[in-house]
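CHAIN AND CONFORMATION:
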Amino acid sequence: MALALLAIATLVLSGKPMRFINPKTDYAFKKIFGSEQSQDILISFLNAVLYEGNSVIRELEILNPHLGPRIRGFKDTYLDIKATISDGHGQTETVIIEMQVLNVEGFQKRILYNAAKTYSNQLAIGDGYTDLQPVIALTIVDFEMFPELDQLISRFVLKERTYLTDYSSIYDIELVFIELPKFQKELADLETLMDKWLYFLKAARKLESVPPSMEAVPEIQKAFAIANQANLNAQELDELEHQEIFIQDQRNSIKKALSQGIEQGIEQGIERGIEQGKLAAQRAIAQQLLGVLDDEAISRTTGLDLEAIAQLRTDDPLNS
């Protein structure tokens, strides 16, 4: 790690611009926040987004600190980081962290399923239910998940539907969502530790140096060092490139599907409007002929069937 920081210092002194990997890709996110050297980074990040920057988390163990094998295809859109966190006073929780860039079908149910599975899998044969510890599922999404809500962070827990009473004194399962598109602050506007971490997630790839205000936070400086492309080998860079291409292809597929759906909807709407307009004209003409012609003659004149004409007479007793 010291060598990575030294590399950044050398580049700064040389005046050459730096290039950082995109923290929102799965491989990069896990490398920065979930690898063996990331414990202090993850503690700082979780304290920032879960506990308003307060040092609640004192101890943390990353349960799967090794990057998985290269996997091509749809599963590249997410990878978990799982850790146990402790406040240093005996309170322990399990946290699952995900970075999700694509709003895919079934995503919300999958988050709930993973949280529930993590909660239930704590017990071995013979363990009591009192041994269960709370689970937090923290999900950072690169799209708006709850457009009806104004807040950047949404937290969901078990409550009674009418009176909103908590199910228990502790939140056994809590779902926390951070919607990155709702974070609109620029570099000069950053105030809190959470601001700086979210700015890192959104803007690191576009930066050419570590901003002084963020460099003052050791854990963020370390995150930039890990994200520095100069510290990655060819295989890691190749993996990141493939993930970027995959994500872009998926986004283009979604855009194309939406565009085709809109075009089809417009065509169907026009056709439906023409049909509805034609029917309204037929009914208007038939209405004028009710007192003049019999039903069969009205049908031949307007094109309406006899059942429709009979319904018009029922609706207008004066012409029946």
